[in-house]
Amino acid sequence: MTAPSARRHDLDVLRIGAFLLLIAFHLGMFYVPSDWHVKSTHVTPALEPWMDALSPWRLSLLFVISGVATRFMADKLAAGALAAQRTRRLLIPLLCGIGFVVAPQSWAEVVEKNGYTGSFLDFWPRYLMFDQSFGIVLPTYNHLWFVAYLWSYTMIVLAAAPLLPRADHWAGRVLGGAGLFVVPVLLFGLYRATAYRAWGETHVLWADGYAHLQYGTAFLLGFLLARQDAAWALLEKARAGMLAAAVVLAVAGLTLARLGVDDLPGWPGAGCAFLREAYAWAVICTLFGYARRYVRGGSPLLSTLNEAVFPFYIVHQTAIVLAGHLLKPLELHVAAEVGIILAVTVASGAAAYHLARTVPALREPLGLKPHTRRARQVSTAEKSG
């Protein structure tokens, strides 16, 4: 088993990459035909296959990595202490995000979809007072639903901590061999073929049965895989085969989707659901395998990016939505529009990270760990020196 103190830099790299993909995905949502909070005048259907290629696995990957990270923390802290720590680290940014960060997204949305003519300062008090007259749920967490779900799954797993030895034994037997590649596909495929078709995905915490099956299982898989060295070694060994499988499954899945087979009732649609999840798990296994093989150590840059990624995540969608909304009247060329939105998003994330590091009161609301007493003493000594 992996030593409790060993840092998994390969997972740090994947976590950073997954969040960067999430930012790119949300920028893409501004341009594809499907509904979103605001939309560009440069709607580009050609982007849809690329978005379809990312959708099946990007969030499941994040939840698996989050499950692994939670297990590493659980090995160091008692369940109660970890529950308190994760509640503080996740719910403070979530609540502050709902009140301050997400609110401008909702304002831009009601302006574009409902024709609202008031300023944000006129809208904000109504947002905070649960005004439902705009036709959307207010206040809301929008992209921060991930944080709410992650906190919920963490609390459930920690409550079941007494079952961990038995669960570890099961994971070692089932996920230490071929089951690693088969069992997740069967579970995720079943969820997609049944629960998704019945309920869809809502991102409403108390009414999102399919998402809880999908992402809760992904989180639990990560939690159980964390200490299974045989499984990680197998992922590394099978990386090339998983890459080939992912490519083949992607081509097959996108072809069937273009033909509309995935929307058919009965076994054709169910078969496509299993194909989709086989592709998603193949991609996740490929990324784990290659990252474990080639990422061997950390660096100051990796540490900085790993710390900065949560503040970037918190503010990125608001930056995209506001920049996109405010740029539309200028009728810029699509390349200029994309470049400006991307620059604003990066600058906003960097500013949020800088503020979180320099203003102690903003550290936790913007997603950074609170300063320990020792860290404050070192910081004070450095400034006085």
Automatic annotation (TrEMBL):
Acyltransferase domain location: 9-348
Q: Which domain of life is it from?
A: Bacteria
Parts forming coiled coils: none
Q: Which residues cross the membrane?
A: 12-32, 57-78, 90-108, 144-164, 171-191, 203-226, 238-258, 307-327, 333-356
UniProt keyword list: Membrane, Transmembrane, Transmembrane helix
- The signal peptide stretch is none
The record's Pfam families line, in alphabetical order, gives:
Acyl_transf_3
- One term of GO molecular function: acyltransferase activity, transferring groups other than amino-acyl groups
Q: What is this protein called?
A: Peptidoglycan/LPS O-acetylase OafA/YrhL
